Amino acid sequence: MSRPPQMDLIAELKRRQGSPLVREGKDGAIEDIITDLRNQPYRRTDGARHSSKWKPGQQLQVSSDISL
């Protein structure tokens, strides 16, 4: 007599859970870059924090449409 399909599914899930699917290594160039960025984050040399929506020389326009 065979086992019910649920028991087979549970056994398969337990077997898969026991072995890790992804193994992390520390030997690649990407890992080195990520480690370096964690130790010393990238900073712009000019120190500016501009929004991409703002362009140099752009200023706000004052309007008197709003009544207080």
Automatic annotation (TrEMBL):
InterPro entries for this protein: FMNL_animal (IPR043592)
Compositional bias ranges of the Polar residues kind: 58-68
Protein's name according to its UniProt entry: WH2 domain-containing protein
Cellular component, GO annotation: cytosol
Positions of the UniProt region annotated as Disordered: 41-68
Gene Ontology terms describing biological process: cell migration; cortical actin cytoskeleton organization; regulation of cell shape
Coiled-coil intervals: none
Lineage, highest ranks first: Eukaryota, Metazoa, Chordata, Craniata, Vertebrata
Domain of life where this protein originates: Eukaryota
A GO molecular function held by the record: actin filament binding
